[in-house]
């Protein structure tokens, strides 16, 4: 093979290329009547597209490297923005959940305060109206809410229960832990009263005996 060779830089089925024979292109044959006035055939210049290694110079690799760096930086920026967007959406979601929970707790505390105020107003109005308040094991204190619940007692029920509560009202003992001490004092007082009555009876009997003896001697 000689020093100077020719290389075909286009495909045979390329529609953009003219269908000209080699002899006609080199001028060995006479041109036809249609191409007689055109002179010698001038083939089109072939420009290698970007990325082709055919006829690539020494700077093509650096151009490719810079283009690749720009593309990688663009993809990294897209991934960063997507990550930030996901973090922002997660933050907004948690914020909404916390706000909803806080609003629920606030509403619950508000209702509790309103129930307390309403209970105090009911108690005050019922007290002014002379309606009794029943405070027992079930209606005295609300363990869950920490507030008093009042039960309305009709007047006829109050009259019926008044007789049953008379004996309970007569009890003088207080529920402060002094029951035993008060019972001891009461028993001691009863014992002292019994002893005093016994002494009085004995003294009266002695006086009667003395009177009887004096009458007999006289």
Automatic annotation (TrEMBL):
<feature type="compositionally biased region" description="Gly residues">
    <location>
        <begin position="129"/>
        <end position="143"/>
    </location>
</feature>
<feature type="compositionally biased region" description="Basic residues">
    <location>
        <begin position="106"/>
        <end position="126"/>
    </location>
</feature>
<protein>
    <recommendedName>
        <fullName>DUF1168 domain-containing protein</fullName>
    </recommendedName>
</protein>
<feature type="compositionally biased region" description="Basic and acidic residues">
    <location>
        <begin position="203"/>
        <end position="218"/>
    </location>
</feature>
<feature type="compositionally biased region" description="Basic and acidic residues">
    <location>
        <begin position="91"/>
        <end position="105"/>
    </location>
</feature>
<dbReference type="Pfam" id="PF06658">
    <property type="entry name" value="DUF1168"/>
</dbReference>
<dbReference type="GO" id="GO:0019901">
    <property type="term" value="F:protein kinase binding"/>
</dbReference>
<dbReference type="GO" id="GO:0005730">
    <property type="term" value="C:nucleolus"/>
</dbReference>
<dbReference type="InterPro" id="IPR009548">
    <property type="entry name" value="Prkrip1"/>
</dbReference>
<feature type="compositionally biased region" description="Basic and acidic residues">
    <location>
        <begin position="157"/>
        <end position="170"/>
    </location>
</feature>
<feature type="compositionally biased region" description="Polar residues">
    <location>
        <begin position="1"/>
        <end position="36"/>
    </location>
</feature>
<dbReference type="GO" id="GO:0003725">
    <property type="term" value="F:double-stranded RNA binding"/>
</dbReference>
<feature type="region of interest" description="Disordered">
    <location>
        <begin position="91"/>
        <end position="170"/>
    </location>
</feature>
<dbReference type="GO" id="GO:0004860">
    <property type="term" value="F:protein kinase inhibitor activity"/>
</dbReference>
<feature type="region of interest" description="Disordered">
    <location>
        <begin position="1"/>
        <end position="58"/>
    </location>
</feature>
<feature type="region of interest" description="Disordered">
    <location>
        <begin position="188"/>
        <end position="218"/>
    </location>
</feature>
């Amino acid at each position: 093979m000689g020093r100077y060779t020719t290389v075909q830089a286009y495909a045979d089925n390329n529609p953009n290329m003219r269908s000209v024979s080699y002899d006609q292109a080199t001028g060995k044959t006479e041109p036809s009547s249609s191409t007689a006035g055109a002179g010698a055939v001038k083939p089109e210049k072939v420009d290698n597209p970007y990325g082709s290694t055919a006829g690539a110079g020494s700077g093509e690799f650096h151009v490719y490297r810079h283009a690749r760096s720009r593309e990688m930086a663009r993809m990294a920026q897209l991934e960063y923005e997507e990550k930030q967007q996901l973090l922002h959406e997660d933050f907004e979601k948690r914020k909404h959940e916390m706000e909803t929970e806080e609003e629920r707790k606030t509403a619950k505390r508000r209702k509790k305060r309103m129930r307390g105020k309403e209970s105090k107003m009911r108690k005050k109005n019922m007290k002014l109206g002379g309606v009794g308040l029943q405070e027992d094991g079930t209606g005295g204190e609300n363990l869950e809410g920490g507030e008093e619940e009042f039960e309305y007692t009709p007047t006829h029920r109050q009259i019926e229960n008044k007789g049953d509560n008379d004996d309970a009202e007569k009890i003088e003992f207080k529920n402060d832990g002094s029951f035993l001490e008060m019972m001891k004092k009461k028993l001691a007082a009863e014992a002292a009263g019994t002893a005093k009555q016994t002494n009085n009876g004995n003294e009266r009997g002695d006086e009667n005996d003395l009177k009887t003896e004096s009458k007999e001697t006289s």
